[in-house]
Structures are given as C-alpha cells and as structure tokens.
C-alpha cells in the first residue's frame, strides 16, 4: 500500500495519523478505521475500505494508493465528498486520479 504524504484525514484522528498508518501497515486490528483509496478500476472514482479488510492476502498483493483516512464510515464518506469537491473546484471535472497526479507532479498507475 502506498500512502500519499498529503493525505485527507478526518478531524477526529489528525494527531494519530502516523500511528494509525503504522498499525494498518503492520496488519494490526483497528476499530472503525477506513481507508479511502484511488479506485483500481475506471468506472469508480474512489474505493472505501474498512482497514481490517486490507490484512487479507488479496489486498496485500494489490497496488492500493491511499489518499484518505477516517475514523468512521460516515467520516470516510464525508472525506470522499471533500475530495471530489476539491477535485471539481481545481479541475472543473471529477477525474480524481488526474487531480492527485497534478498535486503530486507524478504519474499514478494502480490499475
């Protein structure tokens, strides 16, 4: 899993971000933690995962690019809304992958 440095974070976990990312990377159980990632298919904009599902072998083998982290499912979908709103405001469109490529100045390939 690749974590963007400029991650979208829900308000209730801002100070715990690094600790929570380490827990996810180590495969530890987390409670009510959600990862927002760039979609791996062209028909969706973003994927929302409950963090514990990412411990499964299938997901460990995937090139998942995390762009957000939230402490609840509701907060995760609020972050999705914020990301899409920011994307639209910056690009007049909803090509989220291109939005993050522009912000990073590099090509993102996770499909």
Provide the fold topology.
Layout: E1 2-9, H1 17-25, E2 34-38, E3 46-50, H2 57-60, E4 65-70, H3 73-91, H4 96-104
Parallel strand pairs: 1-4
Antiparallel strand pairs: 2-3, 2-4
Report the radius of gyration as a whole number of Å: 13 Å
Unreliable residue runs? none
Terminus-to-terminus distance: 13 Å
Number of strands: 4
H/I helix tally: 4
* Proportion of residues in β-strands: 15-25%
Strand order of the largest sheet: 1-4-2-3
SSE sequence, one letter per element: EHEEHEHH
Overall average pLDDT: 90
Overall geometry: globular
Largest sheet: 4 strands, mixed
Structural class: alpha+beta
Considering DSSP H and I runs of 4 or more, what fraction of the residues is helical? 25-40%
